[in-house]
Design a protein that fits this description.
The protein has helices at residues 28-38, 42-46, and strands at residues 3-6, 20-23, 47-48, 51-52, 56-60, 63-64, 80-85. Helices cover 17% and strands 27% of the residues. With 92 residues, the chain is of the alpha+beta class. This is MoaD/ThiS family protein. It comes from Streptomyces mirabilis.
Length: 92
């Protein structure tokens, strides 16, 4: 099962600069574990204590997984997963 994962700039140090990588798994949790086998350290930047980190947004085919089943969201062949760090700030 091939799933394309789009990697934000801040995490590309783990993927050798690649903007997108392929992974596999029946759920997001399995996908992130699979990515960890080839891109050591990336999983800890996305997942904490078995849940998505608070300031990391993950989209499955442009749908926020927090409104699906979170880390247990099921995946199918050909899905696209996008990882985006939350952005905050500005002038007061």
């Amino acid at each position: 099962m091939a799933i394309e994962v789009r990697i934000p700039t801040i995490l590309r140090t783990y993927t050798g600069g690649e903007k997108a990588v392929e992974g596999g798994g029946a759920t997001l949790a399995e996908l992130f574990a699979d990515l960890e086998t080839r891109h050591a350290g990336i999983q800890a930047r996305i997942v904490d204590d078995g849940q998505l980190r608070r300031f990391v947004n993950v989209y499955l085919n442009d749908e926020d997984v927090r409104f699906l089943d979170g880390i247990n969201t099921k995946l199918t062949d050909g899905d696209n997963v996008t990882i985006l760090p939350a952005v905050a700030g500005g002038m007061v």
